[in-house]
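Bench notes, afternoon.
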Amino acid sequence: MNFRILGKILGALLILLSAAMLLCALFTKFDVHCACPWSFSALAKSSGITAAVGAVMMALGWGPIEKIPRREGVVIVGLGWILSGVFGGLPYMLSEPAMPVVDALFESISGFTTTGSTVMTDIEAWPRGLLMWRSLTQWLGGLGILVLFVALLSYLGVGTKSLFRNESSFQTGEASTARIRDTALNLWRVYLLITMICALGLKAMGLTWYNAVSHSFTAVSTGGFSPHNASIGHYSDWGNGWLIELWLSLFMLMCSVSFLIWVILVKKRWKRLRAEEEGKWFVLICFVSSLMIAVGIAANQLEGFLPAMRDAWFMVVSIASTTGFGTVDYEQWPGFALILLAMLMFMGGCSGSTAGGMKVSRLLVMLRSARFEVVKAFRPHKVFKMQVNGNSIDANGRSQTVIFVCLYGFLVILSSFVMGILEFMNDIDMVTAVGAVLATLPNIGPGFGECGPTKNFAHFMPLTKLFLSLLMILGRLELYAVLVLFVPSLWRKY
């Protein structure tokens, strides 16, 4: 393991993170509505500490880097997200009211992984500057702070293919450094443009600039943090509340499909766009699920069909996109609706998007592989060809997908069991244990039971919060980039 490379790259990442903290500190300084001077101090001190540690790490790893080897690339990605969570929690610990270390770490990791789970019992009691930092962590983590980092490093001539491959679900193939840099920059340009459009739309609908920017950060990143205790339900009683919900659901959908689609649209490569099927299936699943739940709500006479469709559509898109915004308490819905929501949590969004979960593309490969195996039972010599999004899936690709899905499902079961052990003294029920795992591993935010849409994670024990924080990072990096850190042979010297 080349620790000089690790020190230099991770140190530079911390300096980039400190710059983001400093921006929020400046916002606090000039925000006329903020009467909390300690929030500026907390963010400024956190920025200084993070920059100092980053500078020391860069100094220890000083020297030219022509290429980042694959092994170092995996470690940088895994440790990069962990360090971002650790140092991102400093503002919560240094502010008033101050958070305990574990709670601050949980909140920070929930932000960077765009999970949206929270330990804040009264969100509106926190200073606006800290809440803006909370939203910004989700925006940085949405497309991946390391994707931006890849673009910056590529300009310095550093080979970053291994970073890009392990940080995101985009396929680089044999792409050159220049092409990876251009791809990363194009993704961030589109990401920034979509965020600006979302914020301008929310402002036009009557939100303040602060609320418009905060919610656009967390909608586009499919994160779900809100500066209001009632989340988007804060606006439900507005005359145009339905329009705000529709606008946000549009951007949650847009950012749950691959961002390469929007790059393709900008470049007018229509042929490639026609081959995109994952996004089409995702939208169809959301619509059918919403319709089924709305019919169930109306049939149970909980409300009329149109109000039920409004609630069902927003919550289905929020859950399927792994955003986690809330307008209603979905635990009051019929039982089949809760099961359907749990399935959507497991599925998640599309590959190459800001959404979490298992991904629709893997579901498509799994179902088509299962169909092939059924057909082979009576036609054993038939040659199968499989395509997803216009790309051929060979036997190796199918086996990798099956292994990933099985591992993902196994982790859900094992983690639920661990939750039961960790919270044994609190007499945790099965619904809460499974709900907490489904809320954190697929990066959803709200779960079921005692961590449902009207509750939070503050009541869990510190060790449980640390475990759930690990699940968030596991889900955000799609398991392997974190699990590999526990393999002893990874750390051996060359």
